[in-house]
Amino acid sequence: METSPSSQVVTDSASTLPASSSAGSSHLSSLNLALGNPIAHHVQNPEPMTEDPLWYQHAVFYEVLLRSFGDANGDGMGDLAGLTAHLDYLQWLGVDCLWLPPFYPSPMQDGGYDISNFMDINPIYGSLDDFRTLVEGVHNRGMRILVDIPLNHTSDQHPWFQSSRSNPSGPYGDYYVWRDDDSGYPDARVIFVDSETSNWTFDPVRKQYFWHRFFSSQPDLNYENPDVQREILTIIRFWAGFGVDGFRLDAVPYLFEEEGTNGENLPKTHEFIARIRQMIDAEFPGTILLAEANQWPEDVVEYFGTEERPECHMCFHFPVMPRIFYSLKEGNAQAIRSILMTTPDIPTTAQWSTFLRNHDELTLEMVTDQERAQMYSWYATDQRMRANVGIRRRLAPLLDNSLTQIQLANILLFSLPGSPYVYYGDEIGMGDNIWLPDRDGVRTPMQWIPEANAGFSQAAPADLNLPVISSLSYNPSAVNVQSQLEQPHSLLHWMRNTLAVRKAHPVFGDGALVLLPTDNPAVLAFVRHNAEETILCAMNIADSAQATTVDVDGCAGSSVTDLFSGSVFPSIAEDGSLRLTFAARGYYWFSLSH
Ligand code: BGC
């Protein structure tokens, strides 16, 4: 077998773990051991962060829930020091940037998205000093960190709300959206349909109704009030001052309300995001903004702004995600093709954020009614698997724990336009627990080792914040980091190797996409190209072997080299056609050259 220079295969054996070194503090090493961290003694070499201002176009992101990753103080709740102790693992995996959901003081009615103080750390996670240590540890390993700012609402326990309800004419009286009745903004949909019937709730203290797009314990801020806008800028400055590399702007479409509209994506909302961007560019250049806007592509692209008035550097691409799952069950690539065809171009400095799963339900807001019904019947046969307008399950159980399906879903994630976001635990195929309330079923402790509490915590099992998965196929003996490190062909090694191959080809991050015609609807084929290279991605979405002829227009006679193995395939014919055969759920990444 020949290996081409472009082939960047990482040998997939446990022996590729980095050798021990004296780098790293002894405090963290002992914590590692206490946490059962299987790569504790393999300390990574320090690495500088890339200075590329467009780093986010080529980065691999990893969403990590503090409360479920590592519990350093043994109280049953994951914490900042616990995450810091596991940074070597994330560096080893090939993560470039962490995304941390909110860690601020909160009554935790919504996983911490209900904030009672935006400028501190929830003591269950540690202190501001622990946060500084985390940021330093992340940066020392050449990685970056995004923090999450829910700017649409606060907790009802926030002193602003407490003051607003009790002192309407005081300084915070106008921080929230108050009305005498609940008839305003009737065209705004209810988002948390499982628990809320209205976006208005009566407050017995102020004797008025307040507006909320999410739980009634999360009143919406009143963005018409310039003081509210100033407060949010202050909060962003506060965290930017810690050297974080970016902000996920949570629930961003809903900041303003307006009669006669659905209250989403309003021009005033865009104006305010542009104001945040202006401040960031002036005061913290290089820091990025990521929009969480669960909207159709033509509405989301507005959150990138324009060259004259930029808004966010990145936006989640919500509609492509359910279509990956839809296509996999249908065995047909059409749903993915059509959403790619209707996704507008984005500015050259912008980037999509793509994902398969996250800490929320697999949202089905961006599909048709018919597609939604079909997805429920395929993926959520049990009512307990559903939450709001979506499915509260993890990647592996959704895909029947089938390695080939999980790999294909990830190949799609890693080769479609955008920077991929991996949800913690999905790199080892963790399971879920549909008996836990709300979205907690997909937020259970990370499974490090096949022992008590999966190595997540030294607390008594009954004291864990959430129970470790105990089902037959997904309990820590069946699924854990340590045993997958030992197995060269585990999902974990496959993820690391595939990410390494992707990273060796920046075209996956910045290249244009050209969809290619095939004569088999089960096969998705497209080219990613930039000035330096052209890569042909071809995937058999079906669960059976398939053959197809791909029409690679403009590449007649090009040589075809498999990126994973370096194997040379027959060249593209003079008429631009390439005949391919696939195993069930098979895929190729080919480098094309003349
Ligand atoms: C977060 C959710 C949260 C909601 C309200 C989001 O979109 O991802 O977890 O419940 O905002 O804050």
Could you characterize what this model shows?
With 594 residues, this protein is of the alpha/beta class. Helix content is 25%, strand content 16%. The chain has 16 helices and 21 strands. The protein has an eight-stranded parallel beta barrel with strand order 1-2-3-7-8-9-10-13. Helix 6 (226-240) packs parallel to helix 7 (267-283), helix 9 packs antiparallel against helix 10 and helix 9 (320-330) crosses helix 11 (369-379). The chain is globular. Residues 1-25 have low confidence and may be disordered. The structure holds beta-D-glucopyranose. Residues 110-111, 113, 150, 214, 250-251, 292, 359-360 line the site of beta-D-glucopyranose (BGC).
In short:
This protein is of the alpha/beta class. The protein is built from 16 helices and 21 strands. The strands form five sheets. An eight-stranded parallel beta barrel has the order 1-2-3-7-8-9-10-13.
Number of strands: 21
Name the helicity range.
25-40%
List ligands, each type once: beta-D-glucopyranose
SS class: alpha/beta
Q: Which sequence of strands runs across the widest sheet?
A: 1-2-3-7-8-9-10-13
Cα distance, first to last residue?
Answer: 21 Å
Please outline the major beta sheet.
8 strands, parallel, barrel
- Name the average pLDDT: 94
Strand content: 15-25%
Topology at a glance:
Elements: H1 26-34, E1 61-63, H2 80-85, H3 87-93, E2 97-100, H4 128-140, E3 144-150, H5 159-166, E4 178-179, E5 200-203, E6 208-211, H6 226-240, E7 246-250, H7 267-283, E8 288-291, H8 297-300, E9 314-316, H9 320-330, H10 334-341, E10 351-355, E11 362-363, H11 369-379, E12 390-391, H12 395-398, H13 403-415, E13 419-423, H14 481-486, H15 491-503, H16 507-510, E14 512-515, E15 523-529, E16 534-540, E17 546-551, E18 559-562, E19 568-569, E20 577-582, E21 587-593
Parallel strand pairs: 1-2, 1-13, 2-3, 3-7, 7-8, 8-9, 9-10, 10-13
Antiparallel strand pairs: 4-6, 5-6, 11-12, 14-15, 15-16, 16-21, 17-20, 18-19, 18-21
The structure holds beta-D-glucopyranose.
